[in-house]
Amino acid sequence: DVQMVETGGGLIQPGGSLRLSCAASGFTVSNNYMSWVRQAPDKGLEWVSIIYSSGNTYYADSVKGRFTISRDNSKNTLFLQMNSLRAEDTAVYYCARVLTLSSGWRPFDYWGQGTLVTVSS
Amino acid sequence: DIQMTQSPSSLSASVGDRVTITCRASQGINNNLAWFQQKPGKAPKSLIYAASSLQSGVPSKFSGSGSGTDFTLTISSLQPEDFATYYCQQYNTYPWTFGQGTKVEIK
C-alpha cells in the first residue's frame, strides 16, 4: 500500500529554519514527481513546490529563495528545507505524489497526513 | 498566476440532492484540472483529474466536466459522507493554484 508520513513540524521563531521529511512506502520517490502543499489554519490549500524524477524543481513565488525541495533516494524520503521562516508560513504541510503517465498527469493521488509548522515568537 | 474561482463558496443541501460546483480559471488551462475533497482535520482526497477522469476507487456519483476556463464538479446524489469542502486545482501552468474551496453543508 502507498503511504507517506511527514515529520519535522513544530514551533519555530520567525527567521528560523526547519526541515520537513516525508517518508514514503509502497512506491519509489525518485521514480515519481513529488510535491508539497500547505494549508494555513482555517484557510485553503496552497501549492508550495514540486520535484521531478529528473530532479527539476519548481516553487511558489511565496517561498522561492527560502524553501528547497529535495529527496534522499536511499531513504525513499522527500524533504522540504525551510529557511527565513515568516509568520505567514504557519500551516499544515502535506507531501503528495504526482502520478505522471503517458496518458497524462494525476496530481496529488496520494497525500500524507500532514505536519504542522507554527512560526511565532 | 492563474486564478481559480469557485462558486458558490458554500452551499446547504439535503441528502439525495444533486449538487454542482463550478470552477473558473482566469485563463485557459486545457483540461488540466483536478478536484479534491477535504474533511475537517484530514488530508485532501483526490476525486477527479484531467477535468473528467475519476480517480481510482472514487464512486461514480462524482463527475467532472469542462475544458478551457470553465469546469464543474457534480455529485449526483448527496450522501452524509459527502459533506466536506471541495477544491479545484489547475496543473497546466506553474505556479499550480487551487480554488478557494466550496463547503458543502447539511441543510
Counted beta strands of chain A:
11
Q: Oligomeric status of the shown chains?
A: heterodimer
> What's the total count of β strands of chain B?
11
| Mean residue pLDDT of chain A | 97
Judging from the principal axes of the Cα atoms, what is the shape of chain B? globular
Structural class of chain B: mainly beta
Give the SSE map.
The complex is a heterodimer of chains A (121) and B (107).
Chain A: E1 3-7, E2 10-12, E3 18-25, E4 33-39, E5 45-51, E6 57-59, E7 67-72, E8 77-82, E9 91-101, E10 104-111, E11 115-119
Parallel strand pairs in A: 2-11
Antiparallel strand pairs in A: 1-3, 3-8, 4-5, 4-9, 5-6, 7-8, 9-10, 9-11
Chain B: E1 4-7, E2 10-13, E3 19-25, E4 33-38, E5 45-49, E6 53-54, E7 62-67, E8 70-75, E9 85-90, E10 97-98, E11 102-106
Parallel strand pairs in B: 2-11
Antiparallel strand pairs in B: 1-3, 3-8, 4-5, 4-9, 5-6, 7-8, 9-10, 9-11
Task: Describe the protein's architecture and organization.
The complex is a heterodimer of chains A (121) and B (107). With 121 residues, chain A is an all-beta fold. Helix content of chain A is 0%, strand content 57%. In chain A, strands 2, 4, 5, 6, 9, 10 and 11 form a seven-stranded mixed sheet that branches. A four-stranded antiparallel sheet of chain A has the order 1-3-8-7, with no helix packed on it. Chain B has strands at 4-7, 10-13, 19-25, 33-38, 45-49, 53-54, 62-67, 70-75, 85-90, 97-98, 102-106. In chain B, the strands form two sheets. In chain B, strands 2, 4, 5, 6, 9, 10 and 11 form a seven-stranded mixed sheet that branches. Chain B is globular. Classes of the chains: A mainly beta (121), B mainly beta (107). At the A-B interface, β5 and β10 of A face β4, β5 and β10 of B.
